[in-house]
Amino acid sequence: MDRRTLLVAGGGSLTTLTGGCLSDSSTPNRSDDEPGNGTEKPQSSSPDAGISVDDIVVRKAVTYESMMGSGGVHAEDGTQYIVASVRADEGLRASNFTFETGAESWTPGLPDGRGGLNFTLADHGGGPVGRRSGGESSYLAFTVPSPLSASNPRIRYADPDTTWPLTEAGRERLAAPAPSFELVSLTVAETVSRGESLPVSLTVTNTSETDGRFLAALYWPTKLIADDDESHILEREVSAGDDATFSLELDTEYTTETPDSVTLSIRGYITADREVAVRERSARN
């Protein structure tokens, strides 16, 4: 069933995540989205613990997809994320891992998101460590300050000798400043008839001196579906000082059964909310 039509202005990319019905192809591959993004390809392993940790990435913002939910974006001020794929011979507990530098350490964890249990994060699948049985891949995630200039940053498992260090590219990414964005305009109608398309347009500007990838999730209610709100991932590479414009059309067929006022919201590098009155279906529908 075709629930929506997406349009993108300016040649950028925009992805739809439909709550509870996602495939691997619905999220773009961002493993090499920026030069020097801290992606660690070589696999490290601990023969004694039977654990392998690889594909360690450092990201200033990350996307996620959720079970029975719509997914979204983590892009909190002053934070960044270290995400890695983990495989073990038997079940693991996330609490056995830490991310360490020469002077500090952090336990795994992410800010609260939307939807249920995440099954992908920053293109790392399998769900979080501790939710999968032995032998299956899962992901491990840390939220740390940004920027973070530190000596010997590494992931550690349980004992002092089982560690996976970041490469030089990862250390540079960790210490680099994040881009910052500002909402220039958000255009959406105040009313719409159920079943009609709802055009939305927004423009953001990179207010920093750092080139970077804009990421945000636009949420639209779908009260007639037993799931969370529908989300659309907005992403674009934006040079320092430049603008980016996104345009899309939202399907209102499943928004509400009776006339109601609902909230369109955006969360990520920018935050915005707009109230839209959904009226009875028009006669021509």
TrEMBL record:
Q: What is this protein called?
A: Uncharacterized protein
Taxonomy, superkingdom: Archaea
Record's compositionally biased regions (Low complexity): 14-27
Stretches for region Disordered: 1-52
